[in-house]
Design goal:
2 domains; mainly beta; Trefoil (Acidic Fibroblast Growth Factor, subunit A); elongated; 2 helices; two-stranded antiparallel sheet
Length: 202
């Protein structure tokens, strides 16, 4: 639903919407919001992808959707731990060194801040992130903030969608001292590593 909401926010129809969770929204009961998608071309690319329903109440029967109970709110500027979807014991870990690689570790984890990259600092703070957004990932520690990059110690732009298939665990062992850690690298094809954001605090 968030990609749908992100698009609607760019139109005048956003005033009719309220976001409750990443999967659930409400809209003004005085309008037929489905018609804005199917007839008025507010967001025609989302036909057959969004579902409008009247929630069950005492007076009117309706469908009661079963929503996912544990879902992360992907808000720009929030601090996250990043872990593997398949194996929840594998977390991103960045040793507190400017020259260090990012690793996948079972014993250590690093807190990261993810921001929408809109040019100005904090410009996208509080914005809901979707797969097509450019983002920056910064390691947050008590000593220093370290930008995450695959090409050296600089702030690199990633796509938010890269967290689903844009990284993989390196098979090279020579750069890793601990058997519990494996280096993380970018990838466009082949073995991919899907990241899941675990909400920490704003």
């Amino acid at each position: 639903m968030d990609p749908f909401y992100a698009y609607v926010k760019s139109t005048s129809y956003v005033k009719y919407f309220a976001r409750l969770t990443p999967e659930s929204y409400t809209h003004d009961g005085g309008i037929n919001m489905a018609n804005y998608v199917t007839i008025r071309d507010c967001a025609p690319q989302f036909l057959n992808k969004v579902f409008f329903t009247l929630l069950t109440n005492r007076d009117v029967p309706g469908a009661s959707p079963i929503l996912e109970q544990h879902i992360t709110d992907h808000v720009s500027g929030t601090l996250f731990f990043i872990r593997a979807k398949v194996d929840h014991d594998q977390f991103w870990y960045l040793p507190n060194s400017p020259a260090s690689n990012v690793y996948v570790s079972r014993t250590d984890r690093t807190l990261f801040r993810i921001d929408i990259a809109n040019g100005e600092k904090n410009e996208g703070r509080g914005t809901i992130m979707v797969a097509t957004d450019n983002i920056t990932i910064t390691s947050v520690s008590t000593e220093q903030d370290l930008p995450i990059s695959s090409t050296g110690n600089k702030l690199e732009l990633f796509s938010f969608g890269d967290l689903k298939g844009g990284f993989r665990v390196s098979t090279a062992r020579e750069a890793v001292e601990s058997e519990d850690e494996r280096a993380l690298v970018r990838t466009d094809a082949g073995e991919s590593w899907a990241g899941e954001l675990i909400y920490k605090r704003p």
